[in-house]
Design a protein that fits this description.
The protein has about 425 residues and is α+β, with helices and mostly antiparallel strands. About 30% of the residues lie in helices and about 25% in strands. The protein has 15 helices and 17 strands. It has an eight-stranded antiparallel barrel with strand order 8-9-10-12-13-14-15-16. The chain starts with a helix and ends with a helix.
Length: about 425
């Protein structure tokens, strides 16, 4: 489910002017490849993710399966929700995929032969695509024609070999499987670690094999700086698809802004990540009028617990909803700076194919008069394209901002309340008090 992040990446790649002749999807990436080969543009892809009910990913097995007992279950649920709700909502249309003028492949493992099969876009159907996302324990495999089809992530999570077989000189890998040194305890953490080892190990083996065969190509890898939140966090509402899309857009432009024409090293470093600093993720929505139109600024920041942030800056993601700019535009290079008596959001957005700088300034001082709330929740907005206006954080939005607080970089016993308490003891105290007493 967290592959919503890839939609933000796809938007940035398109804005950068990249054009692809072959699109390949594995595991959750089947959703992204399916949307693209169905003819969707990145803006529509993001809108479809935005209003998707992620609960639709889960659907129960027939009652008789549960009556057989837990040790006989083919999976925790089945693929009905994915096929009948998620695919239609996201616009994954197999008829359009089969008719696509862009070549595509979808990777599924044939358990009988223990091999990964790159199924051409001309041969896919809904059940086969769902089988490609059917992780063992989670959903049953697809049994068809004496074959047993399941998610390919245990064998490979990116079919670089297929791209090279088709003659690729340049491969762009959109990678959202974690690859950090952290090892955690518990069944969920270690199930994820098994996927990480299989997926990364298979990728590195493919790169080694290509090098040994003398196959030369350029490799570009867009990945998050830190491992993405797990599907369980998205399912529980602890992060939103909007935020994941915004993170993908930020991460893609971070890479594009510094990318070398030669690409990256084709070894284990290409997907390497680090763990985020311990902190709290907060989101806020500011709304107001700019000119004659309504403007909404949605931002999410990971606020570190250490005191350095009070005099420095932290990264933020988000978007601006503003009709004159074409609707929703995501933020790139977003920063939150807390310096002196001001808290400032700075970022850039694409407007009519060009970059524009935006700035949202909140003064943290309370001037004279009984207007402390108004002072703390009024934000001045400006853009390099000339737009200026005033945004406000309403009481309901302030409550939502506090309710959005989630620990990041935390493993083990530190709960949400503990993380917030630690945050309150740092130099970010004034930032939190902005939201109320």
């Amino acid at each position: 489910m967290r592959v919503a992040w890839q939609t933000g990446v796809v938007r940035a790649l398109k804005e950068h002017g990249l054009d692809f002749q072959h699109i390949d999807g594995t595991s959750g990436g089947i959703l992204t490849a399916g949307m693209l080969l169905s003819g969707l543009e990145p803006g529509e892809m993001a809108a479809r993710w935005s209003d998707l009910d992620v609960q639709d990913f889960s659907s129960p097995l027939p009652l008789r399966e549960y009556l057989r007992g837990p040790w006989s279950l083919p999976g925790l649920g089945d693929a009905d929700g994915v096929v009948h709700k998620v695919f239609p909502h996201l616009g994954v249309d197999c008829e359009k995929i089969r008719a696509s003028t862009v070549e595509g492949t979808f990777n599924v493992v044939d358990f009988v032969t223990k091999t990964c099969v790159a199924v051409p876009n001309t041969e896919v159907d809904d059940e086969l695509l769902a089988a490609g996302m059917s992780l063992p324990l989670v959903m049953p495999p697809l049994r068809r024609d004496e074959r047993v089809w399941i998610d390919a992530v245990w064998v490979k999570d990116a079919n670089v070999t297929e791209a090279l077989r088709r003659g690729a000189d340049e491969v762009w890998l959109v990678w959202c499987i974690g690859n950090s040194p952290y090892w955690g305890d518990g069944p969920l953490e270690q199930y994820v670690h098994m996927i990480e080892m299989s997926a990364n190990g298979a990728l590195f083996a493919e790169l080694d094999a290509a090098r040994a065969a003398g196959r030369r190509f350029r490799l570009h890898v867009v990945r998050p700086r830190h491992p993405l939140p797990l599907d369980s966090e998205l399912y529980a509402g602890r992060i939103s698809t909007d935020t994941l899309v915004a993170m993908g857009y930020r991460d893609a432009w971070d890479y594009l802004d510094r990318a070398s024409p030669e690409g990256v090293a084709q070894d284990h470093s290409c997907t390497a990540m680090t763990e985020p600093a311990v902190g709290v993720r907060l989101s806020e929505r500011l709304r107001g009028r700019v000119g004659e139109e309504e403007l909404t600024l949605q931002v999410t920041a990971n606020l570190p617990l250490e005191d350095r942030a009070s005099s420095g800056s932290v990264r933020v993601v988000g978007h601006v909803d503003y009709v004159p700019w074409g609707g929703r535009v995501p933020l790139a290079s977003g920063r939150l700076e807390v310096a002196g008596d001001a808290m400032v959001y700075r970022a850039r957005v694409r407007v009519d194919g060009q970059w524009a700088d935006i700035e949202a300034v909140r003064e943290l001082t309370d001037d004279e008069g009984l207007d402390a709330w108004a002072d703390a929740t009024t934000v001045g907005f400006s853009a390099s394209t000339g737009e200026k206006g005033t945004l406000r954080l309403g009481p309901l939005d302030a409550a939502r901002a506090l309710a959005s607080a989630e620990p990041v970089g935390v493993h083990g016993g530190l709960d949400r309340a503990g993380a917030l308490a630690r945050l309150g003891r740092t130099g970010l105290r004034r930032v939190l008090t902005t939201y109320g007493p």
